[in-house]
Amino acid sequence: MKLSWKPYILSLLVILIIFPFVYLVLLSFASDWQFPNLLPSYFGSRNWQMVVGSENGLLGSLTLSIIISLSVATISTLSGFILSRTVSYHSKKHTLTLLTYFPYILAPVVFGACLSYFFLKIGLFGTATGVVLAQFMIAFPYALIFFSSFWGNRTKSFENLVSTLGGSQWQSFSKVLFPMAGGMLLICFFQTFLISWFEYGLTSIIGVGKVQTLTIKVFLFIKESNFFFGALSCCLLIFPPVLLLYINKKYVFNKLI
Amino acid sequence: MKRKRSTISIAFFILVGVVPFAAAFIYALLYSFGIVGVVNTGFTTQFWETVITSGEFFKSFAYSALIAALSVIISVSTALWLTLKFRKELDKKFLSYIIYLPLAIPGVVAAFFTYQLLSKSGFFSRIAYQFGWIQEARFFPDLVNDQMAIGIIITFITVVVPFFLLLFLNVYKNERIQELSELSASLGAKPNQVLWRISLPVILHKTWVLIVLYFIFLLGAYEIPLILGQESPQMLSVLIIRELKQYDLSKISEGYVAAVIYTVTVSVAAVILFSKRKRIAHEA
């Protein structure tokens, strides 16, 4: 009988995927873990209890990250949807689309460093509003490119029909286009939320360490060699996206190809 | 009225989509030539000459390109192998959700996790000690902050493979490669011919733009090389930010030279990539 090696490879794959989640959760419950001990001396809920107390500001960082990401996702999705219509129906569509690829393809941290002078001049350097604006500048091109496939002949025909029947542009958006694009709007919202949620480089440059989102916190804890709180911040950072990915996993890749 | 609204929309698009990039680029360009900047006195090509003759930037560029290329090649090969060997198993309910989980891990967490596992006092070092393979932490091989960028490459691969695996599985389904393979087999094609003439060409043709895009993203990656990289050579973004944030104000212009060269290179790549994509779309 021929023995199949496939189950072993698949089991290894599952272990490799789940291991980081389990390891980070366990590390977040640990403290006082000296080399060469294989297990930590303390294992309990002390670190997590400190999150509720505001000693390390993690709860504040979590709230701030949620507010920033929700703001970036909302503004980028709505403006991306509306402006992608203008770009898609424009005679210079390809040139305009190409222009949006530049900030999208550039490393956000380099983009932010070159923009920091302007943020300083308009008084947004080191503020949460500045971070929202900076993250919007990289999330917006994504949203615009994402919605470009929505605006085609079929959508145009619906808009013409509304117009023929006497509907205004506002009615066209509110009664036809938004309901038609409901699923896409939701996916784009999730994706731009994740772009903002995962962002580190741009946030560190524009926020100058004053706007401490969760990614900034992870770095601070690494610098302080406080790996247990680092792991705890990582847990707070990865579990909301797990939930979001579960919700929109079916659609993510169909829109990418 | 309609025309006016369209003009306002385009103006707003240019304001949020084009002006920031243009402003950032022009500012960096002016700074690199000494026209703006706190300690700069006027137009000079001195900073460009220094960057070009010192060679550190180009070394960093080559180093980053090598790491990015190696990571993308290994990731794409692994993802292709997993797709072609395990597509049926990965379609089952439990596995089809599990393979999405790595997408929830951002670069900063992936780098932190790699550091926890592979550093000299990390988890694998502790296991090696318990097995008696090493006597002290310092005997554990350099796998992070190392010359060969092993930690960076491993982390890049772990971040990129899940993305390409999901992408290829979707292309396999959407492009109906299974049906195409069965058809060619019924026409007498051997398994090797099906693989090299049907499956691989179809998948790669459909995804090559995203593969090149990922190479460009990795070229400019910041968090992972910042945590797992070494002092010299550094990856591009880390080098540029180090130059821009240094205390010696007279050296900042050199950082902007590096930023300008990087931006021009990436922008040219974007133009080539997306105008080619447009042409292919038209031909199709």
UniProtKB/TrEMBL annotation, chain B:
Domain ABC transmembrane type-1 span(s) in chain numbering: 57-273
Entry keywords, A to Z: Cell membrane, Membrane, Transmembrane, Transmembrane helix, Transport
PROSITE patterns: ABC_TM1
Membrane topology: Multi-pass membrane protein
Organism superkingdom: Bacteria
Residues annotated as transmembrane: 12-40, 60-82, 94-115, 148-172, 207-228, 255-274
Pfam families listed in its UniProt record: BPD_transp_1
Family annotation (PANTHER family): INNER MEMBRANE ABC TRANSPORTER PERMEASE PROTEIN YDCU-RELATED (PTHR42929:SF1), INNER MEMBRANE ABC TRANSPORTER PERMEASE PROTEIN YDCU-RELATED-RELATED (PTHR42929)
Name listed for the protein in its UniProt record: ABC transporter permease
